[in-house]
Structure formats: C-alpha cells, structure tokens
Amino acid sequence: MPAVHLHNLSFSYSSAVPILDDVSLSLGAGWTGVVGPNGTGKTTLLQLIGGSLSPSRGRVDLDPPDGIVVHCPQTADQLGDDIKTLAAAWDGEARSLSGRLGLHREDLDRWPSLSPGERKRWQIGAALYQDPDVLLLDEPTNHLDPTARDLLLDALDRYRGVGVIISHDRRVLNRLCRRISRVDPSGVSTWNGNYDTARAAWEHAAQEQLEGYQGVRAEQRRAERRLADKRRASATKTARHKRQLRTASIKDRDARSMEKKGKFEGGQRQGSHEIHLLRDEAERLRATAESFEVTRLLGGDLYFDYEPSRRKRLLSFDGPLRIGDTVLAEEISVALDREDRVLLAGPNGAGKSTLLARLMKTSTIEPSRLLHLPQELTETETGALVAEVQALDAATKGRVLGIVGVLGSDPKRILATDKPSPGEARKLLIASGLGKGVWALLLDEPTNHLDLPSIERLEKALAAYPGALVVVTHDDEFARETTQTQWTLSGGRLSVE
C-alpha cells in the first residue's frame, strides 16, 4: 500500500519564523483531512508533499519512491494537457469518470466561459484518471453547487490511494476522511476519525489542558502570595530588631545579649531558607504554566461607524447576460436598494459571477463606495490589496485591521508578508470594505478558503453590516444568517423570491 512519510519537516519563505517547523507525519491509504486557521501552512504542507516546494529542513519520503503524486491546487484556471487527455480518452475508466462527474467533451470548446465549479470537476477528473498513488486536493468543493459536490464526493469515495484534502466543508471531512491533521501555530497533530470525531477529541484535550493550566496558575499565585507574605514578615522583623537596637540603653544588657542576637540570626536564617524554598516553588510553577500551549483565538464583536447612502437605489442591471458570444440569460432585470440583502443562487455556470461583474460595471456610484469580492484573488491583486491597506490613513487603517482581527487573523502578520494565504487575503479585502464604510458588498463565495471559526465570525459581521449585500454562496446556514431575499439564475432566467 502506498504511504507518505514526513521527517522533521520545516519550511519558511524567508529567514523569518518558519511556517512549518519540525513536522513529522505518516500518511497511509485513505483520506486525511487537513484543517486549521488561515495562514498556518496547510497549502504549504501540500506543496511540500507534492514537491513543488522544497523543505528548509527535513525530508519527504514516498512509498513507493517512484509513486505518482498529483496535486490539484485551489484554482482550476488552466486547460492543461491532463484535462485534454481525459476528454480525448474512450476507455472504460474515462467514460466512467466522465459520467460520475457530469463531464462532457464539448465543454472544452467553451473553457473560458466555464464556471470555476465546472472547471474544478474537470481538474479532479483528470487527476483521478492518472490513477495516482498520492492525490492532494486543496479546497476541492469551493465553487461547487450541492449537486456537483455530491458528484465529486461519489468519485473521491472510490479512490484507494493516499488522499490528502484541505477543506473547511464539514460534510466533505465527515464523509471522506478517516483521520484529521490539524495545523496550527503550535504544529501539526493528527487525530483518528472523521471531522466531528476528531474535533470532539481535540476540544476535550484542549479543555483538559486549559483546566491544567488554570490549576497551575492558581497554585503559582498562592505560592507567590506566600512568598510575598514571608518577605514582608522578614522585613518587618528586621526593621523591629534595628529599632530595638537604636532605642535600647547602653546598659540594657538583655537587648544586646548574645542569646537574643543568636535567636534573631537563627530566625533570619530559617526565614531566608523558607523564602528560598517558596521562590523556587513559585518559579517552578511559573515555568510549568508557561509550558502549557493554551490556544488564544482572535475575534470579538464588530461595531460600524457607517454613513448610509442618500440614494435608495444603488445598483441595477437590465439586458442580456453573456460572456463573450455565449448568452447565459436572454433578458433579465434586477435592482439593489440600499438595505437589500440578497442571496444570488443557481447552478454552476448559470451566470452568477457574471451578473455580479455586470452590476459593478454598470454602476454610477463612486467605486470607493462599492466592494466586489471575486471567487479568487490573483497574486497581483493580493499584492496590490496589501499595498493599498498599508497606504490608508491611520484612522481607516486602524478600523480595517481591527476588523481583520475580529475575523480571526493577526493583522500584523498579514501585513508583514507579501504572500498572505487566500483566506487571509479574502478577510483583508472584506475588512477593507467594511472599514471604509462601503454602501454595498458584492461577495462571490466569500467563505472559500476560510477556516470554520472564521466563517462563523464573517457570518456574524455581515449580519451586523447595515448596507446592501449580494452574496453568492452554497453554504445554506451562511445564507440564512446573512440574507433575506433570493435571486435565482437558472435555465437562462432570473426569478426573485
């Protein structure tokens, strides 16, 4: 059976603190889910296993050494040779894969107009067709509607090699995975079972750790109080003895007797010994408390300093919806008012992302009053975003970075690198819009690349946001908490509910 072994693996993009440090891990056949906060190194871990990055220290061993490793990154923009090979193949496995994933050869003729979800199915189908020993998937269900997700999971269920999947989709992690590797700033830990089982285990361990930490800290405080009391008592006794010496008569032989002096010095030695023991105990307890790795999460409540638009109608679009020569909808008419909160729903390829882009393009509002979050941010766009936030005035920059913290990421760390993770970049862009008080947010799959706690924080932030919102999402709970109206694009038509 194939396997992957990581030995004392470390990696950093510069001489700064490593993204991954001293990771040792063995992965056998079956699916391992990789979870953890944004920016802790999940994608980097896959790149190291896949060989597109080389470790700063340590090594990755494959068994067998010449095993086939296929890595499917988060994006699926390119029409590669592997996809063309699958489309051209006529053997039973190619036909079976195409049927299970809903792939049609004629799709390749309109590749530029395929939705990210449609491209993702082709990407993973081509990967499975290579029959790899190791299959690495980075957020494979991003952009997929429920039907496409079920098709994909049915196909991945049949894979028998070493599968490693980064996902924040609990349904995927629970259905596919037999173990979960959790990546966080303290390292990588692996837990048996699906996501729900593993999460219960690490939360139980974390609670025990927290209780142990709190117990040691309470002992430390008691020891420090005893030490302080003993020092005060010793200082008081010394001061009293000195006063007695100063005020005693020269003829007061009792005050100056050797016996009394001996008792005082003996008491001082005993007191000094007790102080030494108490100090050692307090220092030992302090060191023990510092050895605990108690997780402290970013987050908090979000408050808006918001000036609403004087215009009731913010955005509208009337006409055919098309990409190039491809008509997605013959004639649609939509309008967004300043307090509307809209879920834009529909199957992959129906034109949801195109409609968001058209709403932005036809807007007559000052661009700084709108925020459009696309499904993916390029490296160039991410770099420009970081530079833009760096250049904000102090007050606005403070608001933006405060919102980044509320969404669960360390703003200092994001701005210290020119390569924030995709999840961190999305948080930074959303925070820039919220912090600048935009009138409308157009968000295309905003939960893509976000860890589960961050999704919950974003959900809470958007529920509190007082402006207009249009969101494309396949997360039903997220949609329920953040929207009130639904626009549905399907079959070339748009309906409003």
Can you walk through the features of this model?
The longest helix is centred in the middle third of the chain and has 53 residues, at 195-247. A hairpin with an 8-residue loop joins strand 1 and strand 2. A six-stranded mixed beta sheet has the order 5-6-7-3-8-9, sandwiched between helices. A six-stranded mixed beta sheet has the order 13-14-15-12-16-17, sandwiched between helices. The protein has three domains: 3-186, Rossmann fold (3-Layer(aba) Sandwich), CATH 3.40.50; 204-291; 313-496, P-loop containing nucleotide triphosphate hydrolases (Rossmann fold). The two termini are 52 Å apart. The protein contains 15 helices and 17 strands. Helix 10 crosses helix 13 and helix 11 crosses helix 13 (422-435). It is of the alpha/beta class and 497 residues long.
